[in-house]
Amino acid sequence: MVRRWAAAVAPYRFAEQSPGNPRGVASRTAEQRVRVPALCTSWLDLTFVHWRVPPECVQAVLPPSLTVDEYDGAAWVGLTPFRMADMRPLGLPAMPGTARTSPETNLRTYVRGPDGRDGLWFLSLDIGTRVLAALLRTAVGAPYHGADLRVERRSDTVVSTGSRHGGGPSYRLEVEAGAPAEPADLEIWLTSRWRAYTRHLGQIVVTPVEHEPWPLRAAQVRRLDQDLTRAAGLGDLAEPARSTSLTA
């Protein structure tokens, strides 16, 4: 079972950023050290499923100060269910309202910030506790939602399901993991992102992230039913163009 440590520091404004790598190829290793993390966690049984989407469709749901980051002439939207473990602020016990492991599902896309640096933009983040969803939505401005989520591993098959509280969108994803895979340029571009952009109190802020390189495996989507992309303003997307898994 894959377990990889990750850390993120609290968001800061663009004036405080270091130059970084404005237009280079995505790096498989973190572009910065997070020396004083505000939050530490581990990710288990994570799956990446990606769609190619016309760039103008994604640009329409972004804040004006962010620009779609394209690969091979397309924008990319990713569905990433996983289990989050041992989530806690630096030096403190686990956060209240969280179990030792807690499922989460992110719908994300890839953007360039006002300074040209690449990063993630979360279209939605579903998490299995209302308390934590409200806390994170208030603290960082990310679109967290409480949901009933489950991630189950059955040998090399991972079944992930989610249904947002209050009768919102839902999904079911079944992925069969294959052999370990050396990531191609596209996989590195999709999975190696070292900052996340959010909108908080009317301003775009950025959160740097550091973690070990993902040990990717090839994966085959056996079933995917979802309306998360429709709820995010992207409509019903076709079959995914790319899928990889972190199960081991």
Your description of this structure?
With 248 residues, the protein is mainly beta. The protein is 11% helix and 46% strand. It contains four helices and 14 strands. It has helices at 55-59, 130-140, 185-191, 228-231, and strands at residues 4-8, 39-44, 47-53, 67-68, 75-88, 101-112, 118-127, 144-154, 157-164, 170-180, 195-200, 203-211, 217-226, 242-245. Strand 11 (195-200) and strand 12 (203-211) form a beta hairpin.
Summarize the structure.
With 248 residues, the chain is mostly beta strands. It has four helices and 14 strands. The protein is globular and about 45 Å long.
* Uncertain ranges: 1-24
Summarize model confidence as the mean pLDDT.
Answer: 82
End-to-end distance, in Å?
A: 5 Å
Shape: globular
The helix-strand sequence is EEEHEEEEHEEEHEEEHE
Contiguous helical run count: 4
Secondary-structure content class: mainly beta
Biggest β-sheet strands, sense, barrel: 14 strands, mixed
The residue fraction in helices comes out at 10-25%
Q: What percent of residues are in strands?
A: over 45%
Number-wise, the strands total: 14
Cα radius of gyration in angstroms: 17 Å
